[in-house]
Amino acid sequence: KNPVAQAASLLEKLLFLVHVRPLPAGSREEPPPAPGYYDTSCFKRGDLLEVPRTLFVHFGIYLGENRVAHLMPDILPAVTGDRRQIQQVVTNKRLILGVITKTASIRVDTVEDFAYGGSILVNHMDRLFEDQVLGSEEAARRAEKLVGATAYSLLWNNCEHFVTYCRYGAPVSFQTDKFCETVKMIIRDQRSVLASMLVGLASIVCLGLAPSTTLPTIFIPFFLWMAG
């Protein structure tokens, strides 16, 4: 199996925790902001909304009338067809089980439930796509057609893939790209450490134990590892 894919799969299981909303001490679930917390008059149907989190950004497509379509990990659509239960705000338990089982739903929530108190950026990604921006109505219709249960992967099918498909015509995740590049860099660094160790050991075997061979064998891999 590809070492990049193996490392990515392992780190994906760990990093999904950044999507879990932190809960205040002594509280089971943090209540969302009250309706009207956000001024939606500046939003237009088809707008791409971003909410920066600690390490990741959550994305959605504004549908008008204080409604946002967004993709969220959620176990409930896989175990029940009760729309009333599914439409309730996704709890941490539902979110975690959704990530573990790789199930999600593209759902429609209020702006308050979508942003959960975070600041909102509007169409911030348009500058990266320039002439690829679809019409606002087209973006909103694409989002509405996809509402419902779907597969989930933090790296390969997340909320950013959803919104870039809707607004720009192709599913892309810059967060995923950046994450994979980091994984590749770590793997390359580890290979450098291993290669340095092997060269050092070969020099010891060929030239014998001496400060000129032993010290580089110890310190060069150590400093490469620390730099990685």
Description:
The structure is a single chain. The protein is 50% helix and 15% strand. β1 and β2 form a beta hairpin. It is an alpha+beta fold. The chain folds into 2 domains: 139 residues, endopeptidase domain like (from Nostoc punctiforme) (endopeptidase fold (from Nostoc punctiforme)); 39 residues. α9 runs antiparallel to α10. The radius of gyration is 23 Å and the shape is globular. It has 10 helices and 6 strands; from the N terminus they run αβββαααβαβααβααα. The protein has a 6-stranded antiparallel beta sheet with strand order 5-1-2-3-4-6.
Question: What's this, in brief?
Answer:
The protein is of the alpha+beta class.
The top level CATH class name of the largest domain: Alpha Beta
Beta-strand level of the residues, as a percent range?
5-15%
Number of domains: 2
What profile does the largest beta sheet have? 6 strands, antiparallel
- Kindly name the structural category: alpha+beta
Average pLDDT number: 76
Radius of gyration: 23 Å
Topology:
Layout: H1 3-15, E1 48-52, E2 57-64, E3 67-73, H2 76-79, H3 83-87, H4 92-101, E4 103-110, H5 111-115, E5 121-122, H6 126-129, H7 136-146, E6 148-151, H8 159-168, H9 174-207, H10 211-227
Antiparallel strand pairs: 1-2, 1-5, 2-3, 3-4, 4-6
Question: Key terms for this structure?
Answer:
alpha+beta, endopeptidase fold (from Nostoc punctiforme), 10 helices, disordered C terminus, phosphatidylcholine-retinol O-acyltransferase activity, LRAT, lipid metabolism, Lecithin retinol acyltransferase
